[in-house]
Please model this.
Amino acid sequence: MSAGKIVVCGGGGFIGGHLVADLLKQGHNDIRAVDIKPFDEWYQKFPEVENLQFDLQEKEACEKATKGAAHVYNLAADMGGMGFIENNRCLCMLSVLINTHLLMAAKKFGVQRYFYASSACVYNADKQRDENVTALKEEDAYPAMPEDGYGWEKLFSERMCRHYREDFGVQTRMARFHNVYGPLGTWDGGREKAPAAMCRKVIQAKLSGKPEIEIWGDGHQTRSFMFIDDCLKGTQMFLHGDVTDALNLGSNELVSINQLADMVESIAGVKLKRSYNLKAPKGVNGRNSDNTLIKKLFGWEPGTRLRDGMEKTYAWIYDEIKRNAKSR
Ligand code: NAD
Model:
C-alpha cells in the first residue's frame, strides 16, 4: 500500500510504537519513525522502517524528520503520568518546541496531513472538581485553565496547529487523548500512568507475598481509560478525516481509582490491603470524555471494555516483571 511516506514522531514511545506496528500491518511500506531515545529503549522497533534517533526540539532535526513526508503524526512529547507532569512542568512545556518546529517543517516541505496528539489535560480545572464529573465536552477547554505546565503546552500547541492551518494551509488534525493504556508502554520508573501502575503494584504484591498496595489520593477520584487499539483507530480516522477542530478521543466508561484497583485484583485473583497516600500527586478529582461530537462526526467512539483491555495489559506487565526478575 502506498500513501507516500508516513512519519511517526515519538515512534519509540508507547502510542508511536503501536502506530508504526499498525501501519505495517495495514501494508504501508514507507514509514519513518523518529524518537530521542536510544534504539534499545524503544518499545517497538521494526527493521523494515527507517528508524532515526533525533531530538525533535531542534529545528534541523524536524526538517530531516519531515522531508519527503506525506503524513506526519506528532506523538513526541516529554511526558508521563501525574507523578511526572506535576513535578516536571517546565520539561513538559518544552515539548512546545517539538510541535512548533515540526509545523514549520511541515509547511516548508508541503506535508499533506499533520496529526497532533493533544490531551484531556487541556480542560478547565473548574470543570473537574467533582468525582461525579459531568463528561467533558470539547467547548469546556475555554475559558482556559488547563493542567499547569503540560496542559498549557497542549492547549497552546492546539492553537498553533489551528493557525498553521488557517494562515498557511497546513492540514492539521488533532485529538484530545483521554488516558491511553495497553501493553508495550511504561509501567515503571516514574512516568507510568494509573492503569500500568496499578497492574505493577498488584503483581508485585502478589509475587512478593506482601499483600498490600499504596494508592495515590483517596481512591475516589474518577477517570476513564482508552485501550490502545481504540486510540490507533481514532488517531488514523482523525488524520484522514475532515474535522479540523480538536476532538475528544477517549472512553466514557468512568471508574474510580478504587474500582480500577478492584478490577486488577480480580484479574490477579487476589485481595490486597490498601493504604492511601494523600500527599501523592492525584490530578483532578474527576474526568470523563463526552463523546457526543465524535459519534456525530465519525459515527464511532472508543468501545473496548476496560476489563478486556486491562486483562491484556496485566498479562503483558506480568510477563515483563517475571522476565526482569529472571535477568537480574
Ligand atoms: P511516550 O512517553 O511513551 O511517548 C512519547 C515519545 O516521545 C517517547 O518515546 C519520547 O522519547 C519521545 N520524545 C520526547 N521528547 C522527544 C524529543 N525531543 N525528540 C524526539 N522524541 C521525543 O508517551 P505516549 O503515551 O506514547 O504519548 C504519545 C503522545 O500522546 C504524547 O504527545 C502525549 O502527550 C499524548 N498523550 C498521551 C496520553 C496517554 O495516556 N498515553 C494521554 C494524553 C495525551
Remarks:
- The longest helix spans residues 306-327.
- The longest strand covers residues 113-119.
- The radius of gyration is 19 Å.
- Residues 5-180+225-249 form a domain with the Rossmann fold fold (CATH 3.40.50.720).
